[in-house]
Amino acid sequence: MNVVEMTGEFVSYNSASQFTNVPVSKAIAKRMREAGLKVETLSYNDANGVPKMSVVGKKGKGTGGIALMGHSDVVPAEGWAWDPFKLTRKNGRLYGRGSADMKGSVACMIDAASRLSARDLKQPIYVVATSDEEINCGGADYVHRHSRTLKEGKVRFGIIGEPTLLNVVVAHKGSYKVSVTARGKATHSSTGRGMNANHKMVPFLNEIIDIGKKLDKDPKFLDKRFTPPNCTMNIVMGDGNTAANITAPLSSATINCRAMPGQNWSSITKRIRALAKRHDVSVKIWDGLRPLDTPVDSRVVQEALSVTGKRTTKTVSYGTDGMVFGKTMECVVLGPGDIKQAHTIDEWILPEQLKKGVDVFGQMIARFCIEDPA
Ligand SMILES: [Zn+2]
Question: How many angstroms is it from 233 CA to the middle of ligand 1?
Answer without folding.
Answer: 21
